[in-house]
Amino acid sequence: MIGRMLDFLSKDMAMDLGTANTLIYVRGKGVVFDEPSVVALDKETNKVVAVGREAKNLSGRHGKNTVSCRPLKDGVIHDFESATFMIRSFLGKVFKRVPLSRPKMVIAVPAGITAVEKRAVIESAEMAGAGKLFLMEEPMAAAIGAGLPIDQPEGQMIVDIGGGTTEVAIISKFAVACSESLRIAGDEANEAICNFIRKEHRLGISEMMAEVIKIKIGSAVPLKKPLELKLRGKDLSSGMPKVVSITDEDIREAIKEPTLAIVEAVRRVLEKASPDLASDIAEHGIWLAGGGALLKGLRLLLHQATGLEVNKAEDPLRAVIRGTGTVTENFDFYRDVFLN
Predict the structure, then answer these.
(1) For residue range 16-50, what is the model confidence (pLDDT) as tens digits?
(2) Domains (ranges, CATH) in the chain?
(3) In angstroms, how far is CA 215 from the centroid of its own chain?
(4) What CA dihedral angle connects 232, 236, 241 and 247, to 10 degrees?
(5) Quick count: other Cβ atoms within 10 Å of Cβ 39?
């Protein structure tokens, strides 16, 4: 019993440090943690009040001295101190006791990450208690998590739409052949919904509510059965609570710009592909991962834009963490995928 516990305390791990959610995978245990990447701070003392799910539940409903923040923006660390505290807190929830040795950690990062942003991820994780850090590109992790044979000399195309970034890549033989990292994804769609409802209905809603609306009635193409939702918010003219009705057509119009930006990124990557890679993609199709893959009608929209078959990864929200977890379990086999 003691031996097994000590073994767990020194396990290597993988982390999907996402703009919206952070997931942690422990070797031999699987995904052991999944909570929002949110920190609640006391404005006067700058002390952390809550982290993760508890902090998200407080968002918009806390006292005047508390403010919620997301330490990551566009897929990279935006607030170093909050990110470090958040990671340390999350690791503390995973490891009830201090590990006997600092665990080796694999972290997925956006393909378009800069050297400064990369350094921030490494330093933040190290200060939070991680040992040796290995970084890999998110589209590579998503492709592995989707079960694509990235070790084979044939092209596989993955579109990973997260909260902060959309990663579009063609992968072959452990390497990204061509890609685009677009800092337009779920967050921008939520913001677009907030702006649309503010402009069209003079109603103020939170981005959390916009996310709920997007999931319930959002779509990339017209639906066979129209959807409608009663929406409660704050009237911007009177300041009083107000109820309005919105439709799937409203939300489709609201998110049209970020949705088409993702479609154009996919087209650009396909245009960059060599004739042989293009032939492979025509055979295997495009694979979607990330929360954005759940948007109704997105597969059809991409099929109409490219003429290719579009598939959705199993449990797309966890494709990246499954991929980084697979790498952790088979470290030597995937050694060539690391950026550092």
Answers:
(1) 999 999 999 999 999 999 999 999 988 888 888 89
(2) 2-139+320-337 (3.30.420.40), 147-184+257-316 (3.30.420.40), 190-248 (3.90.640.10)
(3) 15
(4) -20
(5) 24
Cβ(49)–Cβ(42) below 8 Å: yes
Token pair 């996310």 in the structure block, residue: 211
Alpha-carbon distance of 277 to 281, in angstroms, equals 6
Q: Which residue has the tokens 């981005």?
A: 207
Residue 167: both structure tokens together:
């990663």
Q: How many residues does the chain have?
A: 340
Q: Are 319 and 145 in contact (CB under 8 A)?
A: yes
Q: 44 is written with which tokens? A: 């006067």
Q: Which amino acid is at 243?
A: V
DSSP H or E segment with residue 32: strand 30-36
The two counts, helices (H) then strands (E), for the chain are 12, 18
Token pair of 97 as six digits:
């006791």
**Sequence-separated contacts (24+) of 188-192 with Cβ below 8 Å:** 188/258, 189/214, 189/218, 189/255, 189/258, 189/259, 189/292, 190/214, 192/254, 192/255, 192/257, 192/258
E-assigned strands of the chain? 13-17, 21-26, 30-36, 39-42, 48-51, 66-69, 72-73, 76-77, 105-109, 133-137, 156-161, 166-172, 175-182, 203-204, 228-235, 241-247, 286-289, 310-312
pLDDT digits (tens, 9 = 90+) for 274-311: 999 999 999 999 999 999 999 999 999 999 999 999 99
pTM listed for this prediction = 0.91
**Contacts from 57-60 at CB under 8 Å and sequence distance 24+?**
59/206, 59/208, 60/206, 60/208
